[in-house]
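Pasting two entries for a bug report.
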Amino acid sequence: MRLSLALKAVAVLDIVVLGAVWLIAPATGLGDDPDSRSLLVARALGTDLVVIGIMNWIISRRDTASMRPFLLPNIVMHVVPAAIIVTLILDGTFGAADWLGAGLHIAPAVVLTWYLASPTKRRAARSEAHA
């Protein structure tokens, strides 16, 4: 898969699966009786995820060298919630059903980390020229 396709897939995940759910149905995942502040934070988070997804979609249309600087912020954006969710599952605060939420953050983090760690064609060409 090309990096542009990976960023588009992450964009769709951020917009539809994560962002829109929190924006449209903010009580999702907040328990039985969320207070108004929690709903506000969930909607704000949903808005942020939709905007990040739109930015990823726009960035995905650029050349690979222009896309690479956006990988690390995207990775961090998914690793932090994944780490929090996994920690809360392991300490018993969250239930086993919350592994889905962790997975929705771990998967894009792993894919984007692979792209960040893999050398670009330009770097590989330079290495061959110097060998």
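Entry 2 (this is the one that rendered wrong in the viewer):
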Amino acid sequence: MWRRWIRNLSIELHWMRRNIMRRWRLDTPTVVMGIITIISGCLLFIVIGNGISQIFRSFVPWVSGSRVGEVYWQSIGFGIKTSFIFLCFSCSLIVYILLKLSRRH
């Protein structure tokens, strides 16, 4: 009985996915790069917000001698995360714009 339900659900999901792809053409390079741009932009927004909140939290109790190393490595990690996500965002935005311009009808 469970196998029959699972089989019916998998068939339904297969046709739903196929209809969604056919209707909105989600498999084109422009749409894929647009989705990647939106996701990386949201991640960049979250990481920058997290970094700003950490900066404010670290300055509330002025950094003492034992926490200097911790704040230092947090700032290094924040810089690496931010630069990596910004690089992904910038590259995907550039590729998205190039794909949009090259597919002009």
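Dev reply: Rendering is fixed now. As a check, the viewer should reflect this: The longest helix spans residues 68-102.
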